Amino acid sequence: MMTHAPNRENIQQAHELIAPFIHRTPIMTSSALNAISGAELYFKCENLQKIGAFKARGALNAVLSLPGQDRVNGIATHSSGNHAQAIAWAAAKVGTKAFIVMPDNSPLVKIKAVEGYGAEITFCKNTPEERESTVLQIVERTGATFIHPFNNYEVITGQATVAKELIEDSDPALDVIVAPVGGGGLLSGTALSARYFSPGTKVYAAEPEGAADAVLSFRNGRIEKAPYVNTIADGLLTYLGDKTFPIIHGHVADVLTVSDQEIIDAMRLLWERMKLVVEPSGAVSLAMVLKNKALFEGKRIGIVISGGNVDLGRLPF
C-alpha cells in the first residue's frame, strides 16, 4: 500500500493500469451555459463513467494494486452509494467478494446497483462513526481487506486520472478546474494532477452549505466537522481525512459553498440544456461557478461532473 501522496509517476502508472477497464469520458460544452456563466465551460462527464461515477477509477486502482493474497477473503468498504458500487464492480472484476456497509437511508437506486454487482450489503445508521465501527466488525469476521472510500492513497491516485484526462484533452490549457468535495479523494487527486500536468491551472472546490466541513478545514488549517449536515448532495456528506486534507490545504486555491436550491437549479440546467443525467453531487461544481460569476468571468473552466446515479422517482424538480 502507498505510504505517500501520489507523485506524477504514480498517477501515470495508475492511469495505464485502469485504462483497459474504464471509459475515457467525454468533455462536453454548452453555448447556453457559457452565456449564462460568462465563461468557457468544459464539462468532464464522469456521470458517463462505469458505475455512473468517477469512483470507478479509485476503487479499481486500489483493488488492482492489492497483492493477490489480500484479495482472497474479499474487499470491504463503507459508502452511501458510488464508492460502494465501485468496490462491488472492481471486486467482481478480479473475482472476489465485496462486503459493503451502507447507511440505511442510502438512495434506492444505489442500493440496487450494489446488489446487482453481487455484493453483500450491511446497513447502518448514517453517521461516520457507525459506518466505521460496522465495517471493522465485518473485516474481523471475514478477513476482508478494507479500502477506505477516500482516505487511501491508491484511491486518490485513481481519482487523479479524471483531471489528468481533462487536462490532456483540453487545448489550450484550462485556467481553472472545479471539483466537488466530500471526503476529498477526487479533489486531492484533481489538485495533484493540476500541479503535475498543468501547473498554471488553479483548482477550486465546490461544497454544499449543508455539509460545510471542507471550507472550515481549509480556512482553519485543521480537519473540522460541519456545524450541521443537511443537503440534497448525498455523495458529499463525509469530512476530510488525514491523507486528503494536507493535499487540499496545500494545492487548492479556495473552497466555496452553494445552497441546495443553487445545486438543484444547476442540476436542472444540466438536464435541460445538455441532456445529461446528473445527480445533485455532480451539479455542485456548476452551481458554484454560476454563484461566483465575477471570479470566473472570461476564464476557461474545467468542471467535473462527478456522477449521475440519481433516483429518477425522486427528482428535486
Describe the structure.
This protein is of the alpha/beta class and 317 residues long. The protein folds into 2 domains: 8-54 and 152-314, 3-Layer(aba) Sandwich (Rossmann fold); 56-146, Rossmann fold, CATH 3.40.50.1100. It is built from 13 helices and 10 strands. It has helices at 8-18, 31-37, 55-65, 82-93, 108-116, 128-142, 153-168, 185-197, 214-220, 244-251, 260-274, 280-291, 293-296; strands at residues 27-28, 40-45, 75-78, 98-103, 120-124, 145-146, 176-180, 202-208, 254-258, 300-305. Strands 1-2-10-7-8-9 form a 6-stranded mixed beta sheet, sandwiched between helices. The longest helix has 16 residues, at 153-168. The N and C termini lie far apart (43 Å).
Q: What's the CATH architecture of the largest domain? A: 3-Layer(aba) Sandwich
CATH topology title of the largest domain: Rossmann fold
Mind telling me the C-alpha Rg?
A: 18 Å
Number of helices: 13
Overall outline: globular
Give the uncertain stretches in residue-range form: none
Structural class determined from secondary elements? alpha/beta
Strand order of the largest sheet: 1-2-10-7-8-9
The chain-level mean pLDDT equals 96
Strand content: 15-25%
Number of domain modules: 2
Q: The biggest beta sheet, please? A: 6 strands, mixed
Distance between the first and last residues' Cα: 43 Å
Total strands: the figure is 10
CATH class of the largest domain: Alpha Beta
Q: Percent range for helical residues?
A: 40-55%
SSE pattern: HEHEHEHEHEHEHEHEHHEHHHE
Protein name: Threonine/serine dehydratase
Keywords: Lyase, Pyridoxal phosphate
GO molecular function, one term: magnesium ion binding
Pfam family, one: PALP
